[in-house]
Amino acid sequence: MKSYALKTFGCQMNKDDSERIAGLLAADGYLEVPELADADVIIFNTCCVRQTADDRAYGQLSALKQLKADRPELLIAIGGCLAQKDGEAILKTHPHVDVIFGTHNVAHLPALLAKAALSGAPACEVLEGTTEFAGDLPAERRHDWHAWLPITVGCDNFCSYCIVPQVRGREKSRTIDDLENAARALAAEGVEEITLLGQNVNSYGRDLFGKPAFTELLARISNVAGLKRIRFTTSHPKDLMAETIDLMAARDNLCPHIHLPLQAGSDRVLAMMRRRYTAAHYLGLARMIRERLPDVAITTDIMVGFPGETAEDFEQTLSVVEEVRFDLAYTFIYSPRPGTAAADYDDPVPKEEKSRWFSRLTEVQNQASLERHQELIGERFDVFVEGHSKKERNRLVGRTASNRLVHLDGPDEQIGRTVPVVFTEAFSWFLIGKGQQ
Ligand code: 5AD
Ligand code: SF4
């Protein structure tokens, strides 16, 4: 039996693609092994959203050179966003690579591996657009109880900093009927939790109906018997609608968590980013969400150091962060991506200044997350136990409906079950709780 090892970088969309890759390879008779060194085939599913993502993938790819020299029959395949962006050029710097497959070519991976093995020459396939949805491919899911369900692929927003439209193509929605059938089939297999995926879920259906139909889709999925937790990501502040929040308030299986990237709190920077909303609009949304969904968690992405951002712009970002008090925020320093509009903008702000802003933002946000979590100490929440902590193997980890990460002590039998928990300790990125009888 041939074996493979698969390494996934980047976002949830890549995690889903990786489950499809695993599904295809399983159907082709491959066995998955955890260690790269033990595998006949090594696959990297890559990200290129920031320069650090490129560097990480290329660094780890370079580290495979020796393995390939020791075992020339080893096949190395690189797919995903970085493969889509750099294509055959990867072979110039990394001639030990055997297969390059783009974001639209997941279904052909087994054929490309066979071709490379047979010919002894690299096989490269990077298509421009989507012809089939990877979401239609069989998946080898990481957990029996959870499934990703991509509702759209690609993105039409063209934020000026973002490479995604180039590497994932134009936004394309799957039909409501297809998605409802997929959700039904998953529930019949015992899946309890589904995460709907899209670069901007709120614009779902615009290409099919001329207007977004996300709320309608959500209502249909929420009616599928057996689905206990329905999540979705990512929301866009320009397209998130009050009716979606109202539906969430009305349905128990729609989880009270909204990931709503702010990016910046200055209207001037938001305009340069082509985000098409203002800080006031964002604040209005956050207020509305908190009013209508009592136990909601609002999480976000924020960038500092956008070209032309000033100290005053940065202060405005901080002030939005202080007002909203996000439950969690993923923070980044702007990274120019060649081929995007912002890559050509003047960027006079020194690196050190950007680093200072970044540290301050992280500090303010970590404090806000910590305080929000501290307010929950003594409260009782249902926690769905997902598995063991990576660091402390005898600790269990789980999530609340609002997606808060919880550590707890308990027997392994609790994995895959919902346990009532009282929170005892709070940190910026997670809570500690005690399971109740
Ligand atoms: N530089 C830094 N951060 C970026 N992101 C997207 N593009 C860039 C970039 N060029 C961040 C955004 C986005 C998250 C997934 O990554 O905050 O929401
Ligand atoms: Fe996901 Fe974007 Fe990274 Fe691709 S480039 S893996 S879409 S975050």
Strand element count: 19
What does the largest sheet look like?
A: 6 strands, parallel
The CATH top-level class label of the largest domain: Alpha Beta
Question: From the alpha-carbon coordinates, what is the Rg to the nearest angstrom?
Answer: 22 Å
Distance between the termini: 46 Å
CATH topology of the largest domain: pyruvate-formate lyase- activating enzyme
* Number of separate helices: 15
Gross morphology is: globular
Query: How much of the sequence is in beta strands?
Result: 15-25%
> Which stretches are low in confidence, meaning pLDDT under 50 for 5 or more residues running?
none
How do the strands line up in the largest sheet?
2-1-3-4-5-6
Computed structural class: alpha/beta
Q: CATH superfamily membership of the largest domain, which one?
A: tm_1862 like domain
Mean pLDDT: 96
In the CATH hierarchy, the architecture of the largest domain is: Alpha-Beta Horseshoe
Question: What are the bound molecules?
Answer: 5'-deoxyadenosine, iron/sulfur cluster
Structural domain count: 3
Task: List the main descriptive attributes of the protein structure presented here.
437 residues, alpha/beta, Rossmann fold, pyruvate-formate lyase- activating enzyme, OB fold (Dihydrolipoamide Acetyltransferase, E2P), 3 domains, 6-stranded parallel β-sheet, 5-stranded mixed beta barrel, 19 strands, 22% strand, globular, binds 5'-deoxyadenosine
Concise overview:
The protein is an alpha/beta fold and 437 residues long. The chain has helices at 12-27, 51-62, 65-70, 81-86, 89-93, 109-119, 164-168, 176-188, 206-209, 214-222, 242-250, 267-272, 279-292, 311-324, 351-374; strands at 3-8, 31-32, 41-46, 75-80, 99-101, 123-125, 146-150, 152-153, 172-173, 193-197, 229-233, 257-259, 297-304, 328-333, 380-388, 396-399, 405-409, 418-426, 431-435.
